[in-house]
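Quick check before the chapter quiz. The format below is the same one you will see on the exam, so make sure you can read both the input and the output lines.
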Amino acid sequence: MCGISALLLADSSQAAVSELLESMGLLQHRGQASYLHNASTQAFCDHDAAGIVTCGHKGRLFQCKGNGMVRDVFTPQRLMALTGNMGVAHVRYPTAGTPADSEAQPFYVNSPYGIVMGHNGNLTNDTELRHFLDYDAHRHINTDSDSELLLNIFANNLQKTG
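Here is the expected output.
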């Protein structure tokens, strides 16, 4: 199942990663017991993806994401690198784009600011948006994900308004 969680802890000395990780495990396994009983759908579990982006001191972003189940993507060493008292987490099975590691969310852009976004859903006008971002906004898109398009549309409009 797809899911997004975000967290902002009032105490800036606390780390958000453990609570984000727990939320992702809970979201990923919603309804999975009945889902996994059907052997014909087992192959879809191979395309699950998970990611966490945290925000640390002075707004620095720390990211860890990849294909696989939550328990497989996040090793203790990778989790220790996710510092900060706020973050966004995303877990999914792909319904659009490709199952490539690069399409695991959340996505981020640096311009105009460091912006992170997780998105569930499918955009119906992705061809038009991709054309606009390439030819009019001159923004580089790294994946086939419609979620990355949405993030860049948001960032482009934010940059225009200052």
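If your answer matched, good. The two ends are 36 Å apart (CA to CA).
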